[in-house]
Amino acid sequence: MRYTFIPELFRQLFSKPFTNLFPLKYAPASIKDTLDKIKKGEIEINPPVEIPDKEIFRGKIQYDREKCIGCGLCIKVCPAKAIELKKEEKKIRIYVGRCIFCGQCVDACPKGALSQGEEFLLADADKLNKEWVIE
Amino acid sequence: MRYEIPIGPIHPALKEPILLQLSVEGEEIKEVDVIASQNHRGIEWIGMNRNNPIQSLYIAERVCGICNISHPSALVLAVEEAMDLEVPERAQYIRVIQCELERIHSHLLWAGVAAHEIGFDSLLHYTWKVREKVMDILELVNGNRVTKAIMMYGGVRRDIKKEHIPKIRKMLQYYKEGFDKLAKFFLEDKTIEMRTRNVGILTKEDALKLAAVGPTTRASGVKKDVRQDQAYFAYPDFDVKAITPDMLTGKVVGDTYDRIVVRLLEVKQSVEIIERALDEMPGGEITSQPKIAKLLVDLKRADGEGIGRHEAPRGEVIHYVNLKSGFEPFYSWKIRAPTYNNIMSWIPMLKGCQIADVPIVAASIDPCISCTNRAIRIANGRKEMLSKEDLHRLSVEKTKKLMRGG
Questions:
Q1: Average pLDDT in the B49-58 region?
Q2: Whether residues B385 and B315 fall in one domain
Q3: Same domain, yes or no, for B227 and B149?
Q4: Could you tell me where the DSSP H helices lie in B118-253?
Q5: What is the ipTM of this complex?
Q6: Which residue of B has its CA nearest to A3?
Q7: What's the Cα-to-Cα distance from B394 to each of B34, B121, B356, B391, rounded to whole Å?
Q8: Is the pLDDT of residue B383 over 70?
Q9: CA B284 – CA B277 distance, rounded (Å)
Q10: A4, A8, A51, A83: best mutation site toward chain B, by most B Cβ within 10 Å?
Q11: CA atoms within 13 A of residue B89's CA, in its CB half-sphere
Q12: For B371-377, what is the mean pLDDT?
């Protein structure tokens, strides 16, 4: 009988957890109450994991309106068709709800008007909410 | 008395929605039939109608979530051949590093799944803990954990930064030190040997006849590897040799155990390739056409056809592309994924196995996991649903039974 994994199993009983911690140790009975309590500062949650390299990280898209010349190159390369041209203003509108975070528009922009931020916890039920439509 | 057992079309041990029709006598599987074409995603249609080639690169990435470097790799090879695009040497090295990082994470993921399928969940969690190191590096180098978005026609999109190299080396060191431990857990443990030795045998003749690819065929002793046979990117510099199980165990059986051996050895091989690539990586540009607008025009003007072959973690993936000048999307685009070849090897593998072996044998060719899992058992006109849990339970029970007996 050889069960080579058993010593490792016992070792794991006493080692520290390896994974990233959840915001809370146990699932709360009511999420809404818990969120309210977090707002008031009654409960502390484990912070999200740190981003390893902020320069390279591909998070929520950032748009610099002043630099944009409305050339439409980002619209041409966007695989998810998440960008729309506002013809009269010669500016763009980005729908983050459709974005797939590939960053191709950032590479394509000739003026450097687009960049990718650090924000990545973006879940929402309404995909046309204010924060998801960048103009 | 024979019973017909269909598994699929939707089943997590199967990569695509596919139907396995088993006919069983008692517990033994006598006949197997594989019925494909249960689903059509229209990815090639999008590439030929809606998208320009740059957009298609990202849809190619989404053909398979695990192989999201392999499909773009084959596609860029095909397009670069079609339009005679030069690729700088540094970009070729970065591509090799990315491909090998993907192989490490894919094989470790598979090893964990294989352990899970036989009911060895503690090993699953251990393997995925080990895999987390390479995922951290992927996030560091690519900016995202899973989809890398790094391939571009004529090069790559991001360089490997100098300050990242020590971290990558640290990860490689971790795998080098951890390899023996992992090999001990997988190859010397009695539980795994009981469930995988002489289970799901694919003979060398069958592997050649069915044109199986990747670790599935190499485990049967066929020395077939695109990196060796038709080296691309910077692979000619590394002199990759196809790995067969006799390198470690001294014999080729072609069973599930051998497929574990091949995949574990390939993790080791990938670590060595990355290490050498980091040492020998030349300087210079990372793309021959940094201007996307110019690249789009070139792609539109290009005329010609090309084939890209790449050794994905699961085997050889082929992309065929035809470009016509003046026509912006691909004029034609055809993808052949490795599982397409490997799926037929289920027939000789499953014959003579038990129903409880189906999860591990089906998983042994490394198809991806999807969501719902069920099989319907029709016995004497009664219908019984065999859910994913039931199959898993059967598998776990068999492990327990063997352990009591042995």
A1: 90
A2: no
A3: yes
A4: 121-142, 165-187, 190-196, 204-209, 214-218, 226-229, 246-249
A5: 0.85
A6: B189
A7: 22, 15, 5, 5
A8: no
A9: 15
A10: A4
A11: 9
A12: 32
Which residue in chain B has the smallest CA separation from A18?
B129
Task: Show the low-confidence residues of chain A (pLDDT under 70).
Answer: 1
Q: Are residues A40 and A79 in the same domain?
A: no
> Which candidate from A18, A53, A107 shows the least CB-CB separation from B157?
A107
Interface contact flag, B189 A2, Cβ < 8 Å:
yes
Q: Which of B58, B132, B184 minimises the CB distance to A102?
A: B58
Question: Chain A neighbours among B 79-98 (CB < 8 Å)?
Answer: none
Q: If we measure between CA atoms, which residue out of B295, B389, B323 comes closest to residue A77? A: B295
Task: Report d(CA B153, CA B351) in Å as an integer.
Answer: 45
Pair A126, A69 in one domain: yes
Q: What is the CATH number of the domain that holds B117?
A: 1.10.645.10
Residue pLDDT, tens place only, B124-166:
999 998 999 999 999 999 888 888 889 999 999 989 989 999 9
Residues in B 49-78 with any Cβ partner in A closer than 8 A: 51-52, 54-59, 61
> B33 and B120, same structural domain?
no
Q: Using the predicted structure, report yes or no on whether residue B373 has a pLDDT greater than 50.
A: no
Determine whether the interchain pair B126/A8 forms a contact, defined as Cβ–Cβ distance below 8 Å.
Answer: yes
Q: To which H or E segment does residue B99 belong?
A: helix B89-117
The identity of residue B6, as a single letter, is P
Per-residue pLDDT at B360: 85
Q: Name the token pair of B265.
A: 């050895």
- Mean pLDDT value across residues B258-275: 92
Q: Pairing mode, if any, of strands A83-86 and A133-134?
A: unpaired
> CB-based contact (8 Å) between B143 and chain A?
yes
Nearest Cα residue to B232 out of B127, B75, B16: B75
Task: Reduce the DSSP state of residue B372 to 3 states and report it.
Answer: coil
Q: Tell me the shortest Cα–Cα distance from B210 to chain A, in angstroms.
A: 36
pLDDT per position as a tens digit, B83-129: 999 999 999 999 999 999 999 999 999 999 889 888 888 899 999 98
* Cα B7 from Cα B13, distance rounded (Å): 10
Which chain A residues touch B190 with a CB distance below 8 Å? 1-3
A12 contacts B126? CB cut-off 8 A: yes
Work out the minimum CA distance from A110 to partner chain B, whole angstroms: 9
